[in-house]
Specification:
The protein is of the alpha+beta class. It contains 14 helices and 14 strands. A hairpin with a 5-residue loop joins strand 12 and strand 13.
Length: about 425
């Protein structure tokens, strides 16, 4: 191999955002790894200030087109805490159903169109369609069912408009939800098939000692509520989140990196963390299928996050079916909001992991302060750490193969840096 090698991907698809990776080597030793996120910052926290409370869910939904519900739910819960609002009976289950819809469309998209091609040695979902059209069609139908459910609940599939602080502007009709049951039943069986497929993939032997972090609810697999827990014994209410986690600016990135306090180390959020820490609370079919795999739980190989996503896809379909069958229209669908000062914070589980929101409302009822910590900023430090550990295993490959291996590792996290599609330029400097 030459003394200096440069790996460059000018337009990497199947991840969202723009950035570069710089690696400096001393012989075969990785001296420095730098994940450079050069995409311009979007300043959501700044332009939320001065907005009315009811504007926040619609504005924060625009942060992501794939997981707008996560931003809406974290915002609504945090602002309801700030204002002392109790939502009407039935709204909680309806919100859980809304979150299932988002997990369905996001996980279906990631598994089939973004991640599976890596394991199958293919460039893209287009290449996969040429090889096995049926697989791609299955993935698209799985995703579409989630979008259809979002449409009924949220008024539209992308950036739902029916969600508000205090509940929903309008409760969906039971008949409209029941009409989706045949598709949901098909999706449940298709998601089981999906799990059985991805469990046959060839996974690199790479299992770091992660600190995994997610929400944990006493009675159910956590979506909208729970304490913050970790695989190393942390269990705190969300109100104490900022005592244990901190965002830090790193010079090479316009995206902040979150660290675990007090040591300042990285940690992992997302499906693998949730399945490991909430395995006993999976729905019956999801748990049964997971127990039948040749996977030792808890699992520390994040290449197998595609398995965790497939398990959660089963869970989301199973839970959605239960909630649709039990649905009774909440009356009223939302609670009135007082105009008063207050502060509140909340976290929910976005498809990619823990999403934290914190707000202060002024006496005038306008947002005085906002803080949003997305899952990807919590994972960026761990991605860098993974690359430090994984790079020595792939440097004997030619440039193209080594670059693809690094891209694959990053795609394990399904990083949502922004709505763009270009991500990685890898430079290796051999001293």
């Amino acid at each position: 191999m030459p003394a200096n090698r440069t790996f460059e991907v000018k337009a990497l698809s199947r991840v969202e955002g723009e950035g570069a990776l710089y690696v400096r080597l001393q012989g075969d030793k990785v001296e420095h790894v730098e994940l450079n996120i050069y995409e311009p910052p979007r300043f959501y926290e700044a332009f939320l200030r001065g907005r009315e409370v009811r504007e926040v869910p619609d504005l924060t939904a625009r942060i992501c087109g794939i997981c707008p519900v996560a931003y809406q739910m974290s915002a609504c819960h945090a602002l309801e805490k700030a204002l002392g609002v109790t939502v009407p009976a039935g709204v909680r289950d309806l919100r859980r159903l809304l979150y299932c819809a988002e997990w369905i469309e996001s996980h279906g998209l990631h598994i089939y169109l973004l991640h599976a091609p890596d394991f199958l040695g293919l460039e893209s979902a287009i290449s996969l369609a040429a090889k096995d059209r049926g697989l791609v069609e299955k993935g698209l139908r799985l995703k579409k069912i989630g979008n259809d459910l979002l449409d009924v609940l949220g008024g539209r599939a992308i950036h739902p408009i029916n969600v508000t602080v205090g509940g929903f502007y309008k409760a969906p009709r039971k008949d409209d939800l029941v009409a989706l049951l045949p598709d949901l039943e098909w999706g449940l069986e298709a998601s089981v098939e999906t799990l059985r497929l991805v469990s046959t993939f060839d996974f690199p032997d790479f299992a770091p000692d992660y600190e995994m972090v997610c929400l944990k609810h006493p009675d159910e697999y956590a979506l909208n509520e729970g304490d913050v827990v970790s695989s190393r014994g942390l269990r705190v209410p969300v109100a104490d989140y900022e005592k244990h986690f901190e965002e830090r600016h790193v010079k090479q990135s316009n995206a902040l990196h979150s660290v675990r306090l007090p040591a300042g180390g990285p940690y992992l959020v997302g499906p693998l963390a949730r399945v490991n820490l909430g395995f006993d609370q999976l729905t019956p079919r999801a748990r049964h299928e997971a127990e039948g795999l040749k996977v030792d739980w808890p699992c520390r190989n994040n290449f197998q996050s595609i398995i965790a996503r497939a398990i959660e896809l089963i869970f989301a379909y199973e839970e959605a079916i239960r909630l649709v069958k039990a649905y009774e229209e909440p009356r009223p669908p939302r609670a009135p909001l007082p105009v008063q000062a207050g502060s509140g914070c909340h976290a929910t589980e976005a498809p990619r992991g823990l999403l934290y929101h914190s707000y202060t409302v002024g006496d005038d009822g306008l947002i005085a302060q906002a803080r949003i910590v997305p899952p990807t900023s919590q994972n960026l430090g761990q991605i860098e750490e993974d690359l430090r550990g994984y790079l020595p295993r792939v440097l004997h490959h030619d440039d193209l193969t080594a670059t693809r291996r690094c891209e694959h590792l990053i795609r394990n996290y399904d990083p949502c840096i922004s709505c763009a599609t270009h991500f990685l330029r890898l430079t290796i400097d051999r001293q």
